[in-house]
Automatic annotation (TrEMBL):
One of its GO terms (molecular function) is DNA binding. It comes from Paenibacillus macerans (Bacillus macerans). It comes from the Bacteria. Keywords: DNA-binding, Transcription, Transcription regulation. This is Bacterial regulatory s, gntR family protein. PANTHER family: TRANSCRIPTIONAL REGULATOR, GNTR FAMILY, UXU OPERON TRANSCRIPTIONAL REGULATOR. Transmembrane segments: none annotated. Pfam families: FCD, GntR. Residues 7-75 form the HTH gntR-type domain.
């Protein structure tokens, strides 16, 4: 993969070119500069430009029209995530960024859930926690139920998006021991919410989420396999 230096850090040129498209506010159907123009603008070889364009084409961000040039496809929420899912970013940094976003979303959900909790929703969540199978398919269901109780549709959509990114980045799956720990922490968080103990619920949720970074490191440690 062609790389470019940004400060002291190597950055994939495909990422630089993608950011260029966003910063220039290209719209769907807009034509990009030619390979030669991009090469001169960024001071890189045309082979690096071709490689980056090929990568963006594979991600569905641009299309190549034979004999005409490269054109931007529709830039929407899904396409904004493609570079992340396509590994244009350092994976370890990506984990930290996802987790920072996830903490912000889930803690706000906790605040609203404590404020808006109803007996019906509390019973629904408690019933779920006492009957749930401890497997990876159910891992996010508790947080989704809290979001339902919080009652903010924008937060629900944002949560779903971040959950999908986290699933992608932790595609190796969860160990049984990890699921047992996670389930116990869910129970502890729920008890604090049920008792309307906001400080305790926030602390427990944040600790629970940050544990995910440690989990990721363990899963990617070859000595743990």
């Amino acid at each position: 993969m062609a790389e470019h230096f940004s400060g002291s850090e190597k950055v994939p040129f495909s990422k630089i070119l993608y950011n260029f498209i966003l910063q220039k506010d290209y719209k769907s159907g807009d034509k990009l500069p030619t390979e030669r123009e991009l090469s001169e603008h960024f001071g890189v070889g045309r082979s690096s430009v071709r490689e980056a364009l090929s990568g963006l084409k594979a991600l569905g961000i641009i299309e190549v029209r034979q004999g005409s040039g490269c054109y931007v496809k529709e830039i929407n929420l899904a396409s904004l995530l493609l570079p992340i899912q396509g590994q244009l970013y350092n994976k370890r940094i990506l984990v930290e960024e996802i987790m920072e976003t996830r903490v912000a979303i889930e803690l706000e959900i906790i605040r609203l859930a404590v404020k808006r909790a109803t007996p019906i929703m509390l019973d629904k969540i408690e019933s779920y926690l006492t009957s749930v199978e401890q497997d990876s398919a159910q891992h996010f269901a508790f947080e989704q139920l809290l979001a339902e109780m919080a009652g903010n549709r924008i937060l629900i959509m944002m949560q779903s998006l971040v959950h999908e990114l986290w699933r992608d980045i932790t595609s190796k799956g969860w160990r049984r021991r990890s699921m047992e720990i996670s389930h116990q922490e869910h129970l502890d968080i729920f008890r604090s919410i049920k008792n309307r103990d906001l400080p305790s619920a926030l602390t427990k949720m944040e600790n629970h989420l940050l544990w995910g970074v440690k989990y990721f490191d363990e899963m990617n440690d070859p000595t743990q396999s």
